[in-house]
Amino acid sequence: MEKPIPHKEEKVFLAGPRSRWNDFIFLNKVLFDFIKGLRALHFAGPCVTVFGSARFKEDHAYYTKARAVGAAIARNGFTVLTGGGPGIMEAADRGAFEAGAESVGLNIQLPIAQRTNKYVKNGMGFHYFFTRKVMLSASAQAYVFFPGGFGTLDEMTEMVTLVQTGKIPKNVPVILFGKKFWQPFLDWVKNSLNEEHRYVEKEEIAIMRLVDTVEEAVKIIEQTTERPFG
Q1: CA–CA distances in Å: residue 162 to residues 28, 58, 225
Q2: How far apart are CA 36 and CA 40, in angstroms?
Q3: How many domains does the chain have?
Q4: Taking the model in full, what pTM does it have?
Q5: How do residues 203-229 score in pLDDT, each as one tens digit?
Q6: Are 105 and 84 in contact (CB under 8 A)?
Q7: 3-state secondary structure of 225
Q8: Residue 164, in any domain of the structure
C-alpha cells in the first residue's frame, strides 16, 4: 500500500480565513500550478481529454475501451490529455503510447499518493484540484467521460456548465461513454430537471452525447472543428 504524502495546503485553504501572508503563499502556489500547466499545454497541440475512474483494472471492459479510444484519438492527430493516474487515465494514455503518439498527464497530490502511470509521456503534479481541472479543460477539442465516481461526476457537470454558459465553445463535445452507466443520469436530468422543474432546457441536455462504442466516440471527435483561442 502506498504511503500517505504530506499535502495539507488545500485542506488548510478550505478551512477558512488565514493571515495575509498565508494567502500570498497560497496565491503563488496557484500561479505556479497554472504556469506549469499552461507551458505544458502550449506545446501539446490540440488535445482530447479523457476522464474516468482510477479504480478500473486492466482486465475491465471499460479499461479496454478507453485504451482503444486513446489509440483512436492519437491516430486522428490529437494529444491525449488525462489526469495521469491509474484506471481509465492509464488506459487512454496507454492507447496513445501504443499508437506512438503524445500524451499529457496532469496528476494531483493526494493524502494517499496517486502514482503517475507509466504510459504518460509528459506529466506534472498539481497542488490543487481546481487548477488541475482548469488545465484539463483549457485546450481540449473534446471531452470523453468514462464511468467514474464523485470526481468524474464533478468534472463532467462542470464541463457541461461551461458549455451551457458559453465559457467553452458549443462546438466542443462532451461525450459520455457507456450507456448502462450514464443513461440513468440522463433520464434523471430529463425527467427531474427538465420536465418536472424546468431547471434545464432540452437543448442543454443535448450538450451531452451518449455513446456505447469506440466507433461512435471517434466519429464525434473526427467531426470536431479546431477550437478557437483568444
Answers
A1: 26, 32, 18
A2: 6
A3: 1
A4: 0.89
A5: 999 999 999 999 999 999 999 877 655
A6: yes
A7: coil
A8: yes
